[in-house]
Amino acid sequence: MDSTPRDGATRAGWGSRIGVILAAAGSAVGLGNFLRFPGQAAKHGGGAFMLPYFISLLVLGIPLAWAEWTMGRYAGVRGYHSAPGIFRVLLRHHAAKYLGVVALLIPFIVYTYYVVVEAWCLIYALHYATGDLMRGDDPGQYAAFFGRLTGATAEGSVFGGGDGLTLLGVVALCFALNLYLIVRGLSRGIEAFCKVAIPGLAVLATIVLVRVLLLGTPDPSKPSQSIEAGLGFMWNPRAEALFDPETWLAASGQIFFSLSVGFGVLVHYASYLRKKDDVALSALTANSMNELFEVCLGGLITIPAAFVFLGAIDPGTLESSFKLGFVTLPNVFAMMWGGRVFGFLWFFCLFIAAITSSVSMLQPVMVFFQEGTGMSRRRAAALLGVLCAVGSGIVLYFSKGLVALDTFDFWMGTVGIFVLATVQAVLYGWVFGIERGHEELHRGAHIKVPFVVQIGLKYVVPVYLLVIFAAFCVKNLP
Ligand code: PHE
Fold first, then answer.
1. Which pTM value belongs to this model?
2. Burial class for 456, CB neighbours closer than 10 Å (0-12, 13-18, 19+)
3. Whose CA is nearest to atom 11 of ligand 1?
4. Any residues with Cβ below 6 Å from ligand 1, and which?
């Protein structure tokens, strides 16, 4: 494996500053915002989750994003764009490139199951568009539909025909779309798409939000089944869960997953910036956009809407974030005027948000094939296509029902990323160096970031991560 840059094809760049910000926001805004976040919040007691969540955002998320953007641009200016090369130039050691390979594997593995959920969203959107969903008013139809789609029920399995075949076809379609955007090149593919998708998403999701909030209290005799009750659950802080290390682990895992921090994606995107392109304000802007989508749209739609239908969310019985999105929400759409249109809009939004994220998981792998082996873009895309098919094939095979997906997500989305983020923090704070980091961060910057952020990155971040992780391990020891 050679991590020396050599190929003109990888020397592409971003077209504009707003373009790179929207592409980074596109990577960040995804299923994590609309499904994973409400699911995690529900699982960890709603309001109890929000305090560790915001602390993780300020102490870990934003500082680590700055570190990634800084290191990415630094390596990119020296001609390295893929994680193995980037790690090598930062660590100045040959063996470092193997660490980079691990950094490529995690987003790739996440992709293999993420794309399956992406396909579910498209299937739901299409079924709303054709009117196949919402036939009659049997509240059980959504659970049955989702069961067939995920192979959880006896009459359907992913390879067993019917909805299963549809799923395979749609997953293949999603592959094709992802690869198409990547093969078009950075600015003509990902950037051009995100420039339309992110503003469009903001408008469409806001329309759904307004409709959901207007539900208010549909039946005054059942005050617990209301938007207000859902908002209360989501925003009233509760102390108990704060003493559970798992809440803290889940909160930081959610921050990493949602901001796409620690996955090697942001370093890669930033590696296409020029020496004096701003990173400080761009990273902050992309992260702020992500939080708006997550807290104001994801957080205000899913849980309050679920309350209107369920009247309560019992953290113990919540099977997974997926059921909230794919079974409970359709039941809420079924209750509302214009439900079919809003159902379509919601799942179409999820699909678009998912695409702008999934391309960012594959793009670094594609560039690695080109940069590391000198493969042409087409060949690299073909190889990537084969790997995706094998990876997602394995996921689909094992994912009858939701348990496997949830488990996958826990190990990759929470634990794996945790380890990678810790490595990155140590790499930045102790090898790259915070003085150099501070100087690099401010080259061409439009804002001034206080030095205390660097001190936090060097000392607080690794300790914070290790303490949570250790506490979690101790709690779960047999
Ligand atoms: N941030 C994306 C989301 O919220 C997921 C993602 C993870 C994207 C890792 C890139 C890398 O859905």
1. 0.91
2. buried
3. 260
4. 27-28, 30-33, 107, 110, 257-258, 260, 263, 265, 357, 360-361
